[in-house]
Amino acid sequence: xxxxxxxxxxxxxxxxxxQDLITRSFFTNYDQQVAILxxxxxxxxxxxEEIVLPWFFHEGDHQQITIKNMLNGFPLxxxxxxxxxxxxxxxxxxxxxxxxxxxxxSFFIIGIQKWxxxxxDEPIMDLxxxxxxxxxxxxxxxxxxxxxxFLKDPKLxxxxxxxxxMSKTNIAILYIEGIAKETIIHEVxxxxxxxxxxxxxxxxxxxxxxxxxxWSPFPQIRFTERPDVTASSLADGKVGVLVDNSPFALLxxxxxxxxxxxxxxxxxxxxxxxxxxIVRLLAFMISLFAPAxxxxxxxxxxxxxxxxxxxxxxxxRTQVPFPAxxxxxxxxxxxxxxxxxxxxxxxxxxxxxGIIGGIVIGQSAxxxxxxxxxxxxVVAITAIASFSSPSYSMAYSFRLIRFLMIFSxxxxxxxxxxxxxxxxxxxxxxxxxxxxxYFTPFGPMVIRDWVDSIILAPVRWRTKRPSxxxxxxxxxxxxxxxKKE
Length: 485
Hints:
Elements: H1 3-14, E1 21-27, E2 33-39, H2 45-59, H3 67-73, E3 79-82, H4 85-93, E4 97-101, E5 107-110, H5 140-150, E6 156-163, E7 169-176, H6 182-193, H7 203-210, E8 222-224, H8 227-235, E9 239-243, E10 249-252, H9 270-299, H10 307-317, H11 324-344, H12 350-367, H13 373-386, H14 392-412, H15 414-430, E11 432-433, E12 436-437
Antiparallel strand pairs: 1-2, 2-4, 3-5, 4-5, 6-7, 7-9, 8-10, 9-10, 11-12
Helix pairs in contact: 5-8, 9-13, 9-14, 11-12, 11-13, 14-15
């Protein structure tokens, strides 16, 4: 058995004689033995039959083919030489083609993958009115190209690695050299290299492994399916991570105020965007604290409620057999069930569930005297306010914390509720994301970054990158007023 046959036997033994491992062994016109190996369904068989195989017989008419003259004359660009059998196995499972030569110790690898992939479509979660309508897909090479369409800077660096003992999932770290902090880049690399698992199926799994505090309900890494958001964040000095088979990008570090911001803010007038951000902040406070304050006032401090409103609340609750906290929790739990049901059920009947839950069941509960109209209004306003959060992960955190606030409001009224709010603020201030304080620019206070926090300042004032993402090349724009001729 020669070296070529031994290599083929080793690869076939590694794959356990799997039927989708295609092995084609043949002799060229120069009587040279060559073998081609690939996995059916992953490699492009049309290119193998139309380009690879004819090239051997054309070139083999005149001379013996070697690795060297293949590198110099092969008509495809994605080619390389491997000597490590483990890397060859990984290349095969990635859809590449392996070529072996008689009396050659090296392997010639051709990158002609072809597998089913979803076309570029509009993002589902990060919707926009004035921005680009392209979203990431499940192919990492396509996602990298989408980012490069927005960032044509040659300093954009893309570092690759694979994670997962079985999945061998391709990961790409993106950053702009000279802008992103080296400490953040190094920290991202270090945390990714420490991941030791069998399978990585989504970017969400990567997020859980590399976030600072897995006990905190707040997201510490930004999730986005928009290439324009990713490009903008990289230009501000952030580090991005793309994961193969996942249509999302991870951006780090993340601050609390960023979770209340949207890329759409930068496409409107600064005063319009500022007003929208204030509305989002008010909606955030309503979704988080409105039910808890309602319970605290009704149970402990009804004397602080205006008389006319108090009479309305009491008359609405006279026929309800439950305490206010029970009916509130009952409606909140019902709402959460309908939310989960609307996600899991087929799309054609999803709107029907919303109509049934919102109109029929809500009205029936009020008519049956199980829930007062005031409680139903509080729950409905809270639910609508929670949808105003641009960050899907932060909205989930608000839903969880809202229940904790309700229980604190039941315990000792405003006293326990104020303690819960204080604990909430302390947890925000003490949290970090890749070395960046989570409550930046307010804790610690960085006045320079206030121009893009709650209020969006005019563009002439937003000339610096965030201080927590870069310590060099801080200027991103220069304001040059127009001169009248």
